[in-house]
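Supplementary Methods. Inverse-folding protocol.

Structures were first reduced to a C-alpha cell string of length 117. This string, shown here, constituted the complete conditioning input.
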C-alpha cells in the first residue's frame, strides 16, 4: 500500500449521536487528497440520516486544487446519499481559496464547530 503524503496530513474521526466529525491537520494536495476522500466516503457510509458529517479544516495549512475537488465531490456524494456535509474553517488561507473559487456559496461553510449543530 502506498502511503505517500501520510506525514503531510493527519485525519482523526469522532462520532456521537448527532455527527461524524472529521478533523484534518496538515496539507491537502495531490499526494494527500485521496486520504481525505476516503475518510469522507467512510463517513457517508457510516452515518445515519439523522447525523451530519462535519469536516473541520481549521488545521489545514494548504488546500490545493486536488483538495478543493475532494470537497466538491463529497458535497455531491453526501447530497446523493441524503447526508449533510458541513465544513468548518476559520483559517484565512483556506477560506480565501473557497471564496476565490466560488465554493463558499456551494458548500455549507461555518466559522466554528458550534455553528454546525
Amino acid at each position: 500500500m502506498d502511503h505517500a503524503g501520510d506525514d503531510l496530513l493527519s485525519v482523526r474521526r469522532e462520532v456521537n449521536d448527532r455527527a461524524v466529525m472529521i478533523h484534518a491537520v496538515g496539507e491537502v494536495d495531490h499526494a494527500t487528497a485521496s486520504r481525505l476522500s476516503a475518510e469522507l466516503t467512510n463517513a457517508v457510509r457510516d452515518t445515519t440520516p439523522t447525523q451530519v458529517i462535519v469536516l473541520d479544516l481549521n488545521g489545514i495549512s494548504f488546500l490545493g486544487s486536488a483538495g478543493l475537488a475532494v470537497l466538491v465531490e463529497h458535497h455531491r456524494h453526501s447530497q446523493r446519499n441524503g447526508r449533510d456535509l458541513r465544513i468548518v474553517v476559520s483559517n484565512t488561507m483556506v477560506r480565501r481559496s473557497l471564496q476565490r473559487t466560488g465554493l463558499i456559496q456551494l458548500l455549507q461553510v461555518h466559522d466554528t464547530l458550534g455553528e454546525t449543530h
